[in-house]
Amino acid sequence: MKGGKLIVFSAPSGSGKTTIVRHLLAQPELNLAFSVSATSRPRRIKEKHGEHYYFMSISQFKNHIKNDDFLEWEEVYRDNFYGTLKSEVERLWAEGKNVIFDIDVSGGLRIKKKHPDITLAVFVKPPSIDELKIRLKKRSTEDDDKINMRIAKAHVELATAPQFDKIIKNYDLDTALREAHRLVAEYVGVSPDLEGYNDQA
What we know:
Layout: E1 6-10, H1 17-25, E2 32-34, E3 38-39, E4 54-55, H2 58-66, E5 70-77, E6 80-85, H3 86-94, E7 98-102, H4 105-114, E8 119-125, H5 129-139, H6 144-158, E9 166-169, H7 173-188
Parallel strand pairs: 1-7, 1-8, 2-7, 3-4, 8-9
Antiparallel strand pairs: 3-6, 5-6
Helix pairs in contact: 5-6
């Protein structure tokens, strides 16, 4: 695999990494494209195939594993597989883009390990576990059992933060967005346009 840079954002669910990634994608000078992950989990209401995820059956996902089609993959929860197709990254590189990922902590570290010379791995840290639980409940997309599973997983994920290149503390969203913008711009070698942020950094 040869191409541009890889920028990984990972965090426990509810930490705000998706909000940060969407913001970065809107900054034209960064020349970013989003890597859509594949998953075997059921599609939620309003989710679109090829935009939010590449949805596939468990057997389809396992066939891709067998054929070594993934840059990284993981069974995050039982029968809920997530992964990054090599073809997706190569497609975006062919467009001349730097590829940004919004993925699970384990997947992010796998990409960093496989391609250390071209990967910036960023961990987004929430204010607290309690705040994380509040954010997950506000989503109203999962039942209490699933939320509790995510919280239990978050304790383990937070311990991996030192393995990432950078840690962004998302205690104040505007400050976190500014810091993420600055980090990525520096990594891809452009001057960031940081006007429009509240200067709290």
